[in-house]
User: Fold this.
Amino acid sequence: MSAPYGRDAESVAELLRAEGYNVTICRGLPAIADSIDDDLGVILLTEEALASDLSPLKAALAAQPSWSDVPFVLLTAQRSGRVSGVEASRLKLFDLATNNLVLERPLGRASLISAVASAMRLRQKQFEMRDRMADLDRLNRTLEDKVADRTAALEAEMANRALAEDALRQSQKMEAVGQLTGGIAHDFNNMLTGVIGGLDIVRRRLDSGRLEDVGRFMDGATASAQRAAALTQRLLAFSRRQSLDPRPLDVNALAVSLEELLRRTVRENIALDIRTGADVKSVVADANQLESAILNLAINARDAMPDGGRLTVETSVVAFDADEAAADFGVKPGRYVLIAVSDTGVGMAPELLEKVFEPFFTTKPIGEGTGLGLSMVYGFARQSGGVVRIESRPGAGTVVNLYLPATDDDEGEARPADAKARRAGAGQTVLVVEDDASVRMLVREVLADLAYTVIEAGDADAAIPVLASDQPVQLMVSDVGLPGMDGRRLAELARTHRPSLPILFVTGYAENATVRADFLGDNMSMITKPFSLEVLAAKINEMIDLS
Assistant:
């Protein structure tokens, strides 16, 4: 901590040490910069410390690893003038860091201790994420070593056995990575929900003129959080752990509806050709994920044609007999809708084709691709009961064939309907069951804005007495991954007390909820974290009868 004047530093240090914290007093920002390391918890400053040159501290923070976002607690005092001392100090701190908390002096001991404890908890989550990333890296290296050893042992065996062992090894590798990424995604999505939702609330307050000149910081944080959310979804798709909402879907209508988007995605020197088969059946799939898969394949095709060419999206129906389905494709026999995305680009060598579905493998320059596009398509196809195959030769272009099981059910919409506009409630009571305090706070704010009455519970044990009481409850909003009794079991118990209670699940990752039709019961719905507050509000309006 740094407090240049008087005995502020010694006084605060004594308070914090009495609470068990290890406190180091620094006489200036250069000393703080020198003390920043991977074990640092929180930096506590008075506004007087910010009067000196910030560049040494900025340089030290910029050198931190990607997982580290050091929290700051700033003690400031209100002053008169056009721009208050609180706001001026706040702006200087925001120019220095984004993970900060501003407290006005004088303040009580409890407020200071609470602020430092809150910042320490945020820092602890960063440490946990660092450790999980390190564990993931170690496990991946161990897995790669095992795969390499097994490959060397199999080289001397018969060709057919080698092919079978390679297929099994690839399946085991994808399952192992899926388990690792699924565990990370649960906590990561909770944090992202807090970031995106919190920024949404700040944006509304900015629009009402309650704060000044923080919009550019909020926009940057929102963009970063949304990119992290997109990466998480790709990880889940690759690992076949994403929450799917499969419904009968008209593939031809979806392909046609994507034409304008695809034309905007490719360059002018690339001709786009969409060919829909006359006898193409519907498929049971998640429309959003199928759109994303086709768009990913189109972007890969575009990047493979730097000098122009032709991109073709074609649909047709194929049938696999039992031998062909099992031996060549690893799927059940029957009819499949084939969506073929082909290009006339540079193509790929055989040694690259063997790796295209591996996670994080990419032929693009650093910074231009995550290596998860084809892995996401592969995971989506397998989770949907289908398969994806790729054919390519150098100089002869590439064809990616996506097979999805056909169905005779009536087709649904080509695209999911947009979220309905917000509507105000009439004081109906909503029970919110969520163990993450930041997510629970955001849901409460949305419900309060919509004029609902909110009852909060951090877990199932706290929610059960409410459900068993005579208190009116018109909707329960529950996380799936609760500590102790999970959200789905809580829903079953809730229905024993309130048989017609609508239930909305929110989830960042839950293995038993990857297929919504199997997970949800009557009058139940689900949204995935991170969600925008508009989507949450629209879903709440949909589930509560406002007539």
User: Anything to note?
Assistant: Residues 159-207 form the longest helix (49 residues). Confidence is low (pLDDT under 50) at residues 366-371, 411-421, 510-516. The CA atoms of residues 55 and 419 lie 46 Å apart.
